[in-house]
């Protein structure tokens, strides 16, 4: 058999075959002299494309070199480090939401391994997506706790990956604010999904629990009431607008991508609460379908029109769901011209 | 030497900024900042270090230094800075923002 089955076919077997066949294919490729790659490279490739959930958690040990030291792999036992275990669990809930509800196999829909690094840098007050993986800081302890503490942050970061492989929204001005908005929407949905909360039970907050008790604030953002999440002498007041009237035309933060996202965030809240039930079902479905309708330079009006179209495709034109979409966008000052 | 330091963006989108005049700092801190600037040749550095596409929620740092040598601004992010710049930014974050 060795050397007869071409490598691309073996890789297909790895991707699609049953576990036994998969193991055989891996061994065959690994042994084959015709495959010109080192074993480790190959193992990395195989792990990176899978039909199942594949998570890897790394520890940066308070340095800024990525990814850091591997501390937990898929199926591994908890490692008694809250940051590592929260990153593992949160990535799991996010993968499950996309797979079970939307039929998406990881961020690239090809089973990309979900890599996360915790303990990035020192007293680092942030979490980010670097284009390949998630990265979480410990927080400085004065303003922020560790960033894995909020599961919606994990869903938010992974969704940046989903957007990167779908709508590819440019991280600047309105398309950038939409990129942030989509991450907040699915971040919040991951939290609600993990807690089995319906739209009335959900808190609609982003980053609840990240602030230390010293800060006057409940979270970083509120989709229900943008601009009300915090007000503190040390960090100022939540600057998010909830309607187009208060749109912030700024050059900072890539044109206010974390600020103006409050407008579509509030529209989603209005729509989801109008449609009712569990947000990941109808409302989340509309937003997920919309990802395939957007372009990299789409603005808020394009977003509104695309969600209207998606709602029509999913639930019928003039359906109650589609009317909820129209009304929700109206509520933030965006008129759908249809 | 005057340093203007600004950090924007990040997951939280909370702006933090501060300015320092090294003449007003304790001598050792002032010397440290001067050394770091000289070592990385700040005034000859490119004005922008851009991250690769797809990255999101990065901190965006903007540093402007004014001295007898002139005035120069450098903008960078968590994943696009040089090691020397990282040391400098960590020092400024600790001394200036966390005060």
Determine the N-to-C terminus distance of chain B: 20 Å
Rg result of chain B: 13 Å
Give the termini separation of chain A. Answer: 61 Å
Structural class of chain B: alpha+beta
Secondary structure tally: strands of chain A: 9
Describe the structure.
Chain A is α/β, with parallel strands linked by helices and 338 residues long. Chain A folds into 3 domains: 1-49, no CATH class; 52-165, Elastase, domain 1 (Roll); 173-330, Orthogonal Bundle (Neutral Protease, domain 2), CATH 1.10.390. Chain A has 11 helices and 9 strands. Chain A has helices at residues 7-16, 19-31, 39-48, 82-102, 151-165, 173-195, 252-256, 262-275, 282-291, 300-315, 320-330, and strands spanning 55-59, 69-73, 114-120, 127-129, 134-137, 205-206, 221-222, 231-232, 236-237. A 5-stranded mixed β-sheet of chain A has the order 2-1-3-5-4, covered by helices on one side. In chain A, strand 8 and strand 9 form a beta hairpin. The radius of gyration of chain A is 21 Å and the shape is globular. The N and C termini of chain A lie far apart (61 Å). Chain B has helices spanning 27-39, 83-97, and strands at residues 2-9, 16-21, 59-67, 70-77. Chain B has one domain (2-97). In chain B, 28% of the residues lie in helices and 31% in strands. Chain B is an alpha+beta fold and 99 residues long. In chain B, strands 2-1-3-4 form a 4-stranded antiparallel β-sheet, covered by helices on one side. At the A-B interface, strand 4, helix 5, helix 6 and helix 7 of A face helix 2 of B.
